[in-house]
Amino acid sequence: MRILWMFQNSSLTERRTVMFNMEMRDRNVVIYARVSTEHEAQINALENQLDWYKPILEMNKHWHVVDWYVD
Predict the structure, then answer these.
(1) Using H for helix, E for strand and C for coil, what is the string for 7-29?
(2) Closest alpha carbon to 65 in 27, 36, 33, 34
(3) Which residue among 3, 18, 43, 61 has the highest number of C-beta atoms inside a 10 angstrom radius?
(4) Domain definitions of the chain by residue range
(5) What does DSSP assign to residue 41?
(6) pLDDT digit string (tens) for 6-34?
(7) Is 33 helix (H, G, I), strand (E, B) or coil?
């Protein structure tokens, strides 16, 4: 089966889409998001990163989020 996976290069705010083959089976996943500073703009960037994952998780119902790591 084909799964659509999106990667975001936050430094360039560029999104690339990569298609790859993978079995459709349950997977445990961990979400990791981070920023390098505590400036307000970076905090907003962190929220944007977390929001970015939501449609990906909705597309992949067989993924089970084990934990969210925010740094």
Answers:
(1) EEECCCCEEEEEEEECCCCCEEE
(2) 27
(3) 3
(4) 2-22+29-70
(5) H
(6) 555 444 444 444 444 455 678 899 998 88
(7) strand
- b (16+ CB within 10 A) / e for 51-63: eebeeeeeebeeb
In angstroms, the CA 51 to CA 46 distance is: 9
Locate 65 and state its tokens: 């989020």
Alpha-carbon distances, residue 39 vs 9, 35, 36, 51, 55 (angstroms): 20, 9, 9, 19, 27
The pLDDT tens digits of the residues spanning 23-63 come to 567 889 999 888 877 676 677 788 888 898 888 888 888 89
Site of tokens 């089966």? 1
Q: How many CA atoms lie within 13 A of 43 on its CB side?
A: 3
Is the pTM higher than 0.70? The answer reads no
